[in-house]
């Protein structure tokens, strides 16, 4: 099947997880979501990743984000691995890990890349908005752990730019100035951006982050 692209609807599925059966779209509800895959249980990089996500629970909650992980192993394996994650990462895994032994979800989301590995999932990340549309995809090789600070930064940008007529420049972090999107004419800037703006070039207009007091 064709790879999923930005703006596509995230495919729905029903699957068994470490927290019971979920209907993915119903489980997400009105929240934002992260779905991310792991090559296999009991692998070192994945162990650190799932431990990190558990420690970031408060940050995800602040952003109204629900997180689900996936690997092609079964529930018994997942539950045993969670004990290791909790022990070695000094945390408590508190989000569902999807059991995908039949590769159904992996194939639905094109998470198996045969030229990398014909059996195991790559490190896919999908950020999904409340309308169930895919807003971000990132694919990492099995050997490279993900940067969850970067995922939080991206979600901050996605949530900001979804509701305000701005974009975020290179290396932007929350609290820093934003770019006014080109479709906003200068005549409307005063009303939309009462904090003012700086015109660097006619197409490059900077303004303080609009959703901060």
Automatic annotation (TrEMBL):
Alphabetical keyword list: Antioxidant, Oxidoreductase, Peroxidase, Redox-active center
Under the heading CDD domains, the entry gives: PRX_1cys
Q: Which InterPro entries match?
A: AhpC/TSA, Peroxiredoxin_AhpC-typ, Peroxiredoxin_C, PRX_1cys, Thioredoxin-like_sf, Thioredoxin_domain
Fetch the PROSITE patterns from UniProt: THIOREDOXIN_2
Location of the Thioredoxin domain: 4-160
GO cellular component assignments: cytosol
Q: Which Gene3D superfamilies match?
A: Antioxidant, Horf6, Chain A, domain2, Glutaredoxin
Q: Name one Pfam family in it.
A: 1-cysPrx_C
Q: Does the keyword Iron apply?
A: no
GO molecular function list: peroxiredoxin activity
Report the record's Gene Ontology biological process terms: cell redox homeostasis
Q: Which PANTHER family match?
A: MCG48959-RELATED, PEROXIREDOXIN-6
**Homology family:** Belongs to the peroxiredoxin family. AhpC/Prx1 subfamily. Belongs to the peroxiredoxin family. Prx6 subfamily.
Q: What is this protein called?
A: Peroxidase
